[in-house]
Amino acid sequence: MSVTRVIIRGCGSYLPENIVTNHDLAAKIDTTHEWIVGRTGIEARHIAADGELTSDLAFNAAQNALKDAGMAAEEIDLIVLATSTPDHTFPATATKVQARLGIHHGAAFDVQAVCSGFVYALSVAENLLKSGQHSKALVIGAEVFSRILDWEDRTTCVLFGDGAGAVVLETSEGEGTNDDRGILAAQLRSDGRYYDKLYVDGGPSTNQITGFLRMEGREVFRHAVGNISSIILSTVEQAGLEPSQIDWFVPHQANKRILEGTARKVGMSMDKIVITLDKHGNTSAASIPLALDVAYKDGRIKKGDLVLLEAMGGGFTWGAALIRW
Ligand code: ACO
Fold first, then answer.
1. What is the pTM of this model?
2. Top CATH class, 182-324
3. DSSP type of residue 110
């Protein structure tokens, strides 16, 4: 039976030039390289320059993805940008990226699901393409979390970084089997009872300020392994597959210990997990497309591979997508 699939035609990423190591942080706040690496696996992160905005990072990643896809910007009629650090409260940062790419047709909007943003945006775009409402999409994850960090709070500021990644999507006819290229399954979840476990303490309707990130790290950690493991298993099962059949896991890059716990729980080998958090830190919605781009460009992810994306973040939100590359 012929079915419409949504395939990834190309991907790209962009990181700000400035690299801040754990040693650099230890020179300014009461922390050590050993504590940060031991608790998280993070060694360094990129930090945007003054005046470098989320839209700048997103635009550069989008251009790199279009180049990789061999596609002109005018062919894109949908931009979905996942971010929790927009240039302004409104309009959507996606519309700024759309204008910079010279696109004046179709639709562009932001999706806000914090660290799960890219998986949410991918799923939204997949369904808009499958319905026939749009034909080619850019899905971008871009963040400058450095601007919402309290640099005096050592329990959070050491964890995050800035960056952007993007993919170009288009439809393709498949046979309706797991051998088809494209997105084979996707699932999204949220549970707002945990709203205050990881949040930013400012907002237009609350106190009219931007605010800073606040987190109960242990609580987030406690839920992360369970939520991520269960969404991996149910997404793989939706496609009638087993975790052992996955070639590459490309997870949200929050903490190496969360990934180790998840690997143990679902029975996946650590060698199949793409890890970039050592160099990028947690870049929230940008972390999955950044990791995807690294593993695709260095030749690990090849055409025909089964790739599983997964994330969890503030809300709580979580989700996964299974893709035949
Ligand atoms: N440097 C040195 N010491 C520190 C630092 C630091 N940067 N931060 C905290 N400490 C100290 C604490 O003060 C505490 O000291 P005490 O024992 O004297 O009171 C000690 O280290 C232990 O603190 P905990 O918060 O209990 O440390 P924990 O082992 O839980 O690790 C961490 C903290 C890394 C934040 C962990 O809880 C975690 O990774 N949680 C998940 C959070 C996360 O990844 N969030 C990202 C967004 S959600 C997501 O993406 C899944």
1. 0.97
2. alpha beta
3. E
